[in-house]
Structure formats: C-alpha cells, structure tokens
C-alpha cells in the first residue's frame, strides 16, 4: 500500500459526547481537520455484547443501531429492497436474528454512515476500522454457517503481559479446511463489507492466521490451550482476487514468530508498534523501541487495550521513567508535559502513520482507559464530556506539521 506519512486520532463513536453519530461526529471530523489529521480510527461498529465490548459484536457484518443519530427515520420500500440486494451475502441471517426492524436499522445506518464518510472525505479525513478475527458465540454468522466452525474448542490467547492466566475469549473457532473448500467465500464477503465502510482497516489478532490458541470448551483459563495451525495467506489471496487490494494494517502484537512476520511482509501489510512496549529492559531487540521503528509500520502511543499514555508514564518505576525521559531528550521532542513529549516521540517515528488515543491528546489519566484485557466489567464506558478545544487542535496541528505528517 502506498500510505503517505500522516497521523490520526483513535476515538470510538461511543466515546463522542452523545455516544452516537450525528452532530457530534461531524464536529469531531471538523476538529480533526483543524488539527491537521488524516485519519480517524475507531473500534468495530457491530452490536456490542452485554458488557459493551465491540470485539464480541453480535454480528461480523451488521452495524449497531445504538449508533444511529435518527433511529426513527423513515425507510422506503425501495431503499430496503436495494439494501437487501446489495447485502445478500449476510443480511438474511441478520434479519432472522435481529427481528422486526433489523433490516430498516441497517438501511438507516448505511445512509447515515455514507453521509458522514462523504463529509470526512471532503474535509481530508479518511476512516480506519477494526476487524476482529473471530465472531461472537451464537452470532447469526455461526448459526447460518455452522459447517464453518469447529466444536470442542474456543478462542483465546496464552499468558502474556496482561494476564498470567491467558485471555479466555470464548469465541467460536473457524473450521479452516471447510473454509478452504468453500474458496474462503465467507472471508471475501466480510472484507467486502469492511471496505464498504472504511478506507483502511486494522485486522485484529493477525497472528491467528498463522497459528491460533485453541482452548478446550469449558476450560476455566486460557492457559490450558494449545497452538493450532492457521490458513496462512489463502483467505487474503481469495479476497484480493475478488475485491482488489485489501488496505489492511496487521495487528501483529503479542507472541510474534518469524512465520507471522513473513506472512505480514509477503502480503505487504504494515504492522504495529506501540510506544508503551518500547521500554521493557528484558527486551532489548523489541521492534517497539523507537530506534527500531521502520517505515512500514503504524505507531501508536497506546491502543484501546492500553492505559492512557499519561497513566502509563505516571505508573512507571523510576528507572524505566528515566529511560523514557532520556529517549525523549535523545529524540529532541521534550514538551512541558510528559504525555505530549510521548506524542511527539510517536510523531517523530519513521513509521508511515502515527496514531494517538484521544485521551492521550487530552492528557487524561488512567481513569479514562477504554479497556483492561482480561476483565469484563467497567470497560468500554469512557466518553468525552465535550469536544476538545480549538487550542488543542492548534497544538496537535503544530506537532503534526513539525513531524512532516500532513498526509501529502
């Protein structure tokens, strides 16, 4: 992909003051444009689970009606028929699952989203989405295509920096041989839907296409799982043949092996680096260390699964904080506030795209964290009390321009 040197801000629509599309979303686009940004990144748009997690959305295709600015807007019979025809590869199971009004809600969302996306494009903004690798348990996709999923095991990840018990996601696992026999038609349909909505998308848990962690059904913790071989590049090749280039970011965090790196590089997708991972004394060769960043990456101050950059910095042991401060000095990006120094450090990276959380630009602490992996309660609730100020937009624009990230 020919991505220009640019930057953006991550903020899910539920974190807008009103928590949905509408005037706030348009005002947010205006703010991003005034701040000199190129990208607005968000989390998956599907109907979240009962804890609010969009990563266990009730559908891999349908959008959440809770995001609608006008949920009672009229829908004509011709609009419904047209949408049903255009979305034939996924809408019927969703109508059966969602019940009365399910089709009309998707038409409303399609209409509102298309208008918002046009407005963003007119203001020089492009949208980055997020593609969870798995579907939710009991989703309409699983019910409509049970032959594409396996029994006896569920998804998760082994113990990591977030939890010594691993993360037990509980999502159904794909029957990759069955998908291969079908020519990966389900994945092609999924990517088609993604790029109806977004200009670029992060594919979550990319390493799962090389090998994935399968946990026995009923296990209490994910640490009892084992690695199983994934499909490799085959789903991407099938979708590319049908749809053309897939503008994807590979979320290559976690236990990354040479085969995962090879697959990412063969496909040409930029990977991810996270500043908060770049200061671990036991990992001197980490790709997250600022001096190890390369161009074909997207650098993040943190993601939705991380603490805010201020909360992270203020919680560091003295020795590591001193290393961070020394790095800031070495890169000559010192600002009065440490979190702004770290934003400028991300912007100084050779990575093509630099992304900051909205909470980081605002200098908010750990109370504004979006998610804590391994926990269910209390996550996904953070919301802006009001849109950021014009003064903050000017400051972010100045940092963007100083780093040569104007997107041209």
What's the quick description here?
It is built from 14 helices and 12 strands. The protein has 408 residues and is of the alpha/beta class.
Keyword list:
eight-stranded parallel sheet, TIM Barrel, 408 residues, single chain, 12 strands
Describe the 3D structure:
There is one protein chain. The protein is built from 14 helices and twelve strands. Helix 2 packs across helix 4 and helix 7 packs across helix 8 (234-243). An eight-stranded parallel beta sheet has the order 9-6-3-2-1-12-11-10. The longest helix has 21 residues, at 102-122. With 408 residues, it is of the alpha/beta class. The chain has one domain: TIM Barrel (Alpha-Beta Barrel), CATH 3.20.20.80. Helix 1 links the parallel strand 1 and strand 2. The mean pLDDT is 95.
């Amino acid at each position: 992909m020919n991505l220009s040197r640019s930057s953006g801000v991550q903020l899910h629509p539920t974190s807008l003051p009103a928590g949905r599309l509408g005037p706030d979303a348009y005002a947010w686009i205006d703010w991003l444009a005034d701040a000199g940004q190129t990208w607005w990144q968000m989390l998956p748009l599907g109907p979240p689970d009962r804890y609010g997690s969009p990563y266990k959305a009730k559908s891999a295709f349908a959008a959440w009606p809770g995001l609608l600015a006008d949920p009672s807007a009229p829908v004509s019979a011709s609009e419904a028929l047209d949408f049903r025809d255009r979305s034939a590869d996924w809408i019927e199971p969703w109508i059966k699952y969602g019940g009365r009004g399910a089709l009309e809600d998707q038409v409303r969302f399609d209409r509102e989203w298309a208008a918002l996306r046009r407005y963003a494009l007119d203001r020089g903004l492009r949208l980055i989405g997020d593609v969870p690798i798995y579907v939710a348990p009991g989703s309409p996709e699983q019910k409509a295509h049970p032959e594409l999923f396996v029994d006896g095991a569920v998804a998760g990840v082994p113990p990591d920096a977030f939890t010594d018990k691993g993360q037990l996601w509980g999502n159904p696992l794909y029957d990759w041989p069955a998908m291969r026999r079908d020519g990966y038609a389900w994945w092609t349909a999924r990517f088609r839907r993604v790029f109806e909505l977004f200009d670029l998308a992060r594919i979550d848990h990319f390493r799962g296409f090389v090998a994935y962690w399968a946990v026995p059904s009923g296990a209490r913790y994910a640490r009892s799982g084992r690695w199983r071989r994934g499909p490799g590049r085959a789903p991407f090749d099938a979708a590319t043949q049908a749809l053309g280039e897939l503008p994807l970011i590979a979320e290559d965090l976690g236990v990354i092996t040479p085969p995962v790196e090879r697959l990412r590089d063969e496909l040409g997708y930029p990977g991810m680096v996270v500043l908060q991972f770049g200061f671990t004394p036991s990992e001197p060769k980490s790709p997250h260390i600022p001096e190890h960043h390369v161009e074909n990456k997207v650098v993040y101050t943190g993601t939705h699964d991380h603490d805010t950059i201020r909360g992270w910095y203020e919680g560091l042991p003295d020795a590591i904080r001193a290393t961070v401060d020394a790095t800031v000095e070495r890169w000559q990006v010192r600002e009065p506030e440490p979190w702004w120094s770290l934003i400028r450090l991300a912007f100084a990276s050779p990575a093509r795209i630099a992304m900051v959380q909205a909470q980081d630009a605002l200098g908010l602490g750990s109370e504004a964290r979006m998610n804590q992996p391994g926990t269910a309660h209390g996550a996904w609730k953070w919301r802006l009390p009001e849109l950021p100020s014009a003064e903050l937009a000017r400051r972010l624009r100045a940092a963007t321009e100083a780093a040569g990230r104007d997107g041209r």
